Amino acid sequence: MTFFRIAACGMIFAILFFPVSGFTAQEQPDILYPGISAQQHALAREVMHEFFAQHWLRAGGLARDMRNLEQSDSLLPLSDMLRFAMPAWRIINSEFDSRGQGDSLFRELEPLRRDCLWILHHRHFADSTLPTRMFLEAGINGFNATLIIRSNPLASLTQGLRSFRTLDSLRAIAPQIKDLYLGLGLFQCALANEPGIIGFALHLFGGLHVSLDSGLAYLRICSNEALYTQVGAKEYLIQFLSPFNHNEAGEKQAVFRSLEQEFPGNPYYVFQEIDEQMAFHRESAFEKSTCDWALAQIAGFDTSNSTTKLYANCVKWQCTAIDTSLAATLGPRPFGDRECLSFYPVFLEAAKARYVIDSDSKQTVGKRRNAIRSYHELRNRAYVVLRRSEINPMLREYYLWHLDDGLP
Predict the structure, then answer these.
(1) Cβ contacts of 187 within 8 Å, gap of 6 or more
(2) Residue 94 and residue 395: Cα distance in Å, rounded?
(3) Which residues contact 228 (CB under 8 A, 6 or more apart)?
(4) Taking Cα atoms as reference points, which of 92, 75, 198 lies closest to residue 132?
(5) Distances from the Cα of 141 to the Cαs of 50, 215, 304, 402, in angstroms?
(6) CA torsion through residues 95, 97, 98, 103, sign
(7) H/E/C letters for each residue in 59-76?
(8) Which 3-state string (H, E, C) describes 129-185?
(9) CA dist 366 → 59, 133, 373 (Å)
(10) What are phi and psi of 114, to 5 degrees?
(11) What are the Cα distances from residue 121, in Å, to 16, 74, 86, 117, 350?
């Protein structure tokens, strides 16, 4: 399998800070990491909640407030990590208005990383904050490894391995930092699904053993116990849990619903769940109840920026694929030839064609042969459009996986 946000060489490694829900009256308040103040912690959670709601401007403004707080109170540079993670995530997901804006986001990253590392290495912090400093440095370098994998694969591998070793050592010296399991889990899952020669090379030269089961276990720890990376771990569980394993498919369904509840009105999480069904569970995707559920969500979608408008449009395409009579009412916007998700309407046509083939057992031999030929034409067209679109290579890998494994 090829998985989303994982490049073909398997050297990807990433750490993000993600939001978690506030604790209830029955839950214990968070135990903060060494060197992170209560106000800083609260702002970090708010920043990333807004970010995962795809409210870019609000998230950016809160991150700047957090940066001002850190400068005035001489705190650890947690905001630099967040300010690095947010544009990096958007670049990987092609969530920007134009190639120019994407290039601008990319140019912001190296100065942010450089500033964060300079603060960690040159300013004086209490010795007790060392585990948090190690975590921040491993995180920002690990994420940077994902962004330079194509331009500088050797540096990507070096940074990724170094970050992995740092996080692995933190398990023993700072077991309270549960967020480190995101990086460990992602590294294990990514490499476990790459060609055997890569795992052998890592074992030979780095003494590392990789396992998908270990990676999933790490991601589950993070999704349940981490302070900052719970949502990130859920996103990666969606990528690595098998849609073909009954138990894992059920676990993935629960993750989808938890994200939809945490971010009501955000079309991305609705799109994400239906997209999974279109690729791997078409018997559910094309039920009337799926369409009815999606239609009920559309009225409440937040479409305040180009990203949420994009995903809302995709949900409209999904609904019209299920029920073609809705096309005139919903009026999904056609995509430009090289637009990020320009392949998606053709992918949906191919998914529906595959569903008809699989569900209609009474077709004549000739009719079935014609249906299969038409299906393969649609599938091949989706491949062509996807490969020529201006989409981030890691995002392209995810949708190629959908085509390869989901539409045989």
Answers:
(1) 13, 160, 164, 210, 215
(2) 8
(3) 17, 18, 19, 20, 44, 45, 48, 179
(4) 75
(5) 24, 20, 32, 30
(6) negative
(7) HHHHHHHHHHHHHHHCCC
(8) HHHHHHHHHHHHHHHHHHHCCCCCHHHHHHHHHHHHHHHHHHHHHCCCCCCHHHHHH
(9) 57, 66, 11
(10) -60, -45
(11) 21, 14, 23, 6, 53
**CB atoms closer than 10 angstroms to residue 360:** 11
Token pair for 345:
């309407």
Identify residue 331 by its one-letter amino acid code: G
What pLDDT, in 10s, does the model give residues 318-360? 999 999 999 999 999 999 888 889 999 999 999 999 999 998 8
Task: Give the per-residue pLDDT at 99.
Answer: 76
**What mean pLDDT is predicted for residues 176-202?**
74
Tokens, residue 329: 């009412």
Query: Nearest CA to 402 among 313, 285, 275?
Result: 275
C-alpha 174/C-alpha 315 separation (Å) is 43
Instruction: Give the angle subtended at the CA of 49 by the CAs of 135 and 402, to the nearest 5°.
Output: 85
Residue at token pair 């994982």 = 6
Q: Supply the pTM of this predicted model.
A: 0.86
Contacts of 403 (CB under 8 A, 6+ apart): 347, 350, 379, 382, 383, 386
- What CA–CA distance (Å, rounded) separates 211 from 187? 9
Domain ranges of the chain: 38-240, 281-406
- 349-401: pLDDT as tens digits: 999 999 999 988 777 888 889 999 999 999 999 999 999 988 888 788 889 98
200 phi-psi bin (left φ>0, alpha ψ -120 to 50, beta other): alpha
The residue ranking higher by pLDDT, 11 or 91, is: 91
